[in-house]
Amino acid sequence: MTRKKYDFEPTFAKGIKSDVVHQADIVPEVAFNDDEVHKQNGATRELSQNGNTKVPRDAEDGQEQSHDERPKASGRFGFVRKGDKQEMVGTLELFQFSTKFDIFLIIIGVLGSIIAGAVFIGNITILGEVVNIFTEGNSSSLNTNSTENEETDYLGEIMPYIYAYIIAGCISILSVLISISCWTWSAERQVATMRKRFFLSVMSQDIGWFDLHGSGDITSMFSEDMSKVQEGLGDKTGIFIQWTCTWLAAIIMTFTRSWKLTLFALPFSPITMFVGLTLFRTMRRMAAREAKAYAKAGAVAEQAFRAIRTVQAFQGQEKESERYQGHLGAAMDMASKKGLVIGLANSSLWVIVYVMFAGVMWFGLWLIQNDGLEPGSILQVFFGVLIGSVSLGNAFNNLESMSNARGAAVRVFKIIQQGSSINAFSSDGLRPDKLQGSIEFRHVAFSYPARSDVQVTKDLTFKVNPGQHVALVGPSGCGKSTAIQLLQRFYDPLAGEILVDGRNIKDLNLKWLRGQIGVVSQEPVLFDASIEENIRLGNVSATIEEVEAAAKMANAHDFIKSLPMGYKTNVGERGAQLSGGQKQRISIARALVRNPKILLLDEATSALDHEGEAVVQAALEKAGKGRTTITIAHRLSTIKHADKILAISDGEVVEEGTHDSLLQSEGLYYQLVQIQTQIVKESDLDISDVVIVEDTDELSVHDSLLGASFRRTRSNGSTAETNLVVRSSRRQSQISARSGAEPLSEVQETLPEPEEESLAVGLFDIIRYNAPEWHLILIGSVTAIIAGLIQPGFSFLISELIKTFELTDRGKQRDRVNILGTIILCIAVLVAVVRVLMNYCISKSGAYLTARLRRLTFESIINQDMEYFDSPYNQVGSITSRLSGDASLVQGATGAKVGQILESLSTIVCALVISFVYGWKLAFVVLSFMPLMVISGLIQGKVMAGAAHKEKSQLQQASRMCSESVDNIRTVASLGREDFFVDKFDHLIEANKRSHRVKSVVFGAAYGIANSVLFFAYAGSFYYGAVLIDDGEMEFYDVFRVFGAIIFGGMVVGRNSSFGVDYVKAKLAAGRIISLINRKPKVDVRDPSGEKLDNIAGGLSLEDVVFHYVSRPNQRVLYKLRLPILPGQTVALVGASGCGKSTTAQLLQRFYEIDSGALMVEGHDLKQLNLRWYRQQIGVVSQEPMLFDYSIAENIAYGDNSRQVPMAEIIEAAKQANIHNFISSLPKGYDTNVGEKGAQLSGGQKQRIAIARALVRNPKILILDEATSALDTESEKIVQDALDRASQNRTCITIAHRLSTVQKADKIAVVSKGRILESGTHKELLTIKGAYYRLQKAQGKRHHRDSDE
């Protein structure tokens, strides 16, 4: 339950940091807390990290959707933007999922809230009567001349009120227990039902709906919106009722005590509320702006860390640090201004309270002298009006939570009520007993819902006979993958029909239809479960023998059995623990285990190396026998033997036939073959090396048949940005496998928890980083101590007022009250000055500290070596979270917290001095309640956000499942496993509901007990005080001095009792931060030492290099690898995935230190060279080019961060990379923003910009790591030409799986298991018929040569 902060509230509320009130605390305190506004404001979340933010995507067939076109229900960071009109459901509609038992709980909760609110005012009433007893015992009446000297039996007279305190305490415990428990339990039950209905409705939607609703939006609704609804249904509503009853009871009580004094004091109430609410809203807006700045800084950090190899390769650390610090500066300025507003808020409200007290005191005395008012009524009216104002303000804040719940429920309820024309849970439709497997598309026209103005298929017509193998070919965006998705009925066509065995698929039961289809997609998607469970998703009834048989067919059994846990091995989120090839083989096994009648293969072997591909391709061909098979392939050699090939262009079949007949017709298929043949011209290879990748299609300006537009529609209906991200995930797994993240066989299934790398630090070690702001800290500390002295002074003045009532001389009374009133007004002025200075200085110093720690931590992280980033505990989401979270934790125990602690210590010292001076015996008795009050504060601090605010970890697993299911909805739908995930989700929700039932009772009991401690403290203190007065050891007013001072001090301790926990967390966080700031990587680019050669020609040599990754100490990646590279020579490294090729490339950039051997540069040991200078000599183009969210010009200039690159050089580099003409054709030219990760560009465009980036620094050494593997045929030709041109007169190291791209290399080195098996030219290696020759044969053994075609 997120509590609305910045209420002006008395100690009884502030002391517990909760909406449940310390019902017996009478001493007012107004506090605006700097750090709490972040907890209240939903905008404080930094981007990130982690994980639910969905990047818009281009779909496979060219569909693109801009950020502006995505449906938005709220502002970017989770709050409603100014000017947005928020739609709400009715209040009663919130409870539409309640059962009769829930209604019963709500009724009981309402009664508990009413009683809890009413009991509170009984406390003030009792206090006033106690004051009357003590004052009347010393003076018979201020309105008579009586001089009665009889001794008063204080103990006897006060005992009824002692009993009243005890009874009120017991009632408080019971009512709060009932209120909190019933409301929270009822809310959890209702929201559990909502969550289940919500997820069921989401999984029932068609794929077109998901194109318009990203997983980030859905997960946000599941977590954030549901939490807001739960707040509105839970104890927020109960507390609203409680506060409203408190306000109503306070007004009734004050009018019954003195309607005249109440009418005098009541006007201060709306003033207090107006000032408090106005300043609260101001601070909330400022907190939102501060959060935006931090979020932008977080986005910079995330982007830099995700592209860390690119950043370090081009030495962009300083540039990224400057960008990061720029956003921190904006956040720091806003935090400083916010501190000033907090100071103004606190001082303003304190001044109002003091002025009201002075006015009530003056007018109250007049009423005592002239209207017979009792002395205790002054305190009753003062505190009654004050508490009534606070209660109404708190009620409004909880009402705001209800409004937020009503707004959040709109989106949630719309999803729950959303129907779907393609519902996987529907039982409607035919279920034929037998399926032959014939497929027919009749004049199918289709547009994706996200871009209805772009028609993907126009008149798609073709027929597939039972058991026939049909291949779909064509340029990217032509509609091939769209046809696959339409056949699975992911969408319904706008026109035409799709028939299976002569029946329209709309007439077939959807679950039955998808159960007859096996799909292997280009991007294999696995779930966070064991390998066995992932394969069994294809057929939930499959036995372990059937699972293993399917794995054997997919060539996956051997590697699975080599894993520590075998088939029980968990693959991690999205199969992250496996290489791309391993994931694809498991995906194939999953499709084969269901023994489908129809098999759909969309680039099914794209992630496999050539040896693995040959085996799996043979398995797929075997599996396809007797089944209707539709294949999409860009390696045209893989489909030459298809029964029929359909060439598709612009959403229509332009030609069909066999491979031979289509070549004779010289149409589209012939053109594609010719392009591939041209690439491999003068080669002995077949055209199987050439790949057309639909989702990274390059623009063709040469051929109208292959034409596309810069913004295009793709086959899966999602946007380009997301598709690129998904592709990047697959490729990254391949890169990881090659660069040391070996297949899971080399990794333990579960890694041990890492020990916290943390130094033992203290508060002064933390504050040392705040040293430049010492003057702000000094002023803040002094003013905090003064503020702390003022607070017990106020309770002392109350006792002085009570003492005034024993005087019988009215003139002396007036004089004394005038003096007290003047002192109070002076204190009001002092408080105004002190609190403004305190909050401003401490907030500003804390903002500087946070910004400084973030900056230093960021600079340290971005300069760490790759060994740091390879650690599974240093994933991007984790380190960005730590970067922001640890700095915030440190600020939570410094900054404003230091001021609060100094103020608290000052208050306690002053309170103890007062209490022991005026009554040491009573002081000890009152102090005996201190441990209970501290424990009370700790208990309430633990659950201060309210019982309805579930711990984040409780629903984390369910939230992950929701996110994972939605992210991979196409795989879930094609498998027909929506019900499986819904059942699993329901089980998690039910488990959470059961645990929450117990917690709600525990929270209610803890609150009830903690809420009632002061009732018993009052009873005990007044009882013993009366005994001491009767014994003549104390005066009655001294009882109030001792009692008020210690109770007030105890409340301060209670309010800040969580500081101990915060301080421990801050120490650990500071230790981690300081350790990281001081962490020196093995390869430190910041080290200025090392030799800088005057001239470098590019000669390199690897001499007996041995290397292993730290994360795999027992797995050697390179073993005595020897490879001389002459200046200007082009050397190609070839071999299977994981053999050490990319590791070699990274060692040449000195991303890691080798274990033994030597890396020589021009005869000099690489370790002896200045690293910064050396990397300046290298240009890198990787398989997945990482571009930044800059303009094209800035991305190219990123290649040389040592200077300001002139525009002329940028253009020249673009020309060399064959991208200048394309850039010039864009509306903004070189100023065109490429989007996050270059999402606005196709794969070929990104690759050529990456080449230009590498060339702009004019490197002596060029490293090309699979630089064309992601491209389609046309793009590959253009980019390969650019690479050939770029490598001239440079030392060039090329890594490639497609051997056709390396045949012109001066030297080809075959790498296997970390060693060079053989090296030589292409012809030399073919002649000796060794490992290179076998690789060639593996690629071409299933196909005839195409050199004559």
TrEMBL record:
Q: Give the ABC transmembrane type-1 domain ranges.
A: 107-404, 778-1065
List the transmembrane segments: 103-126, 162-187, 237-255, 261-280, 340-365, 377-396, 776-799, 819-838, 901-918, 924-945, 1001-1024, 1036-1054
What InterPro entries does UniProt report for this protein, alphabetically? AAA+_ATPase, ABC1_TM_dom, ABC1_TM_sf, ABC_transporter-like_ATP-bd, ABC_transporter-like_CS, P-loop_NTPase, Type_1_exporter
Keywords from UniProt, A to Z, are:
ATP-binding, Glycoprotein, Membrane, Nucleotide-binding, Repeat, Translocase, Transmembrane, Transmembrane helix, Transport
Record-linked PROSITE patterns: ABC_TM1F, ABC_TRANSPORTER_1, ABC_TRANSPORTER_2
Domain ABC transporter: start-end pairs: 439-675, 1100-1338
GO cellular component: a single term: mitochondrial inner membrane
Subcellular location per UniProt equals: Membrane
Q: CDD domains annotated for this entry?
A: ABC_6TM_Pgp_ABCB1_D1_like, ABC_6TM_Pgp_ABCB1_D2_like, ABC_MTABC3_MDL1_MDL2
Q: Name one GO molecular function term.
A: ATP binding
Q: Where is the composition biased (Basic and acidic residues)?
A: 55-72
Record's compositionally biased regions (Polar residues): 41-53
A GO biological process of this protein is: oligopeptide export from mitochondrion
- List the Pfam families: ABC_membrane, ABC_tran
**Topology of this chain in the membrane:** Multi-pass membrane protein
- Annotated region Disordered: the residues are 35-76
Q: Which family does it belong to?
A: Belongs to the ABC transporter superfamily. ABCB family. Multidrug resistance exporter (TC 3.A.1.201) subfamily.
What is the name attached to this protein's record?
Bile salt export pump
Can you name the source organism?
A: Elysia chlorotica (Eastern emerald elysia)
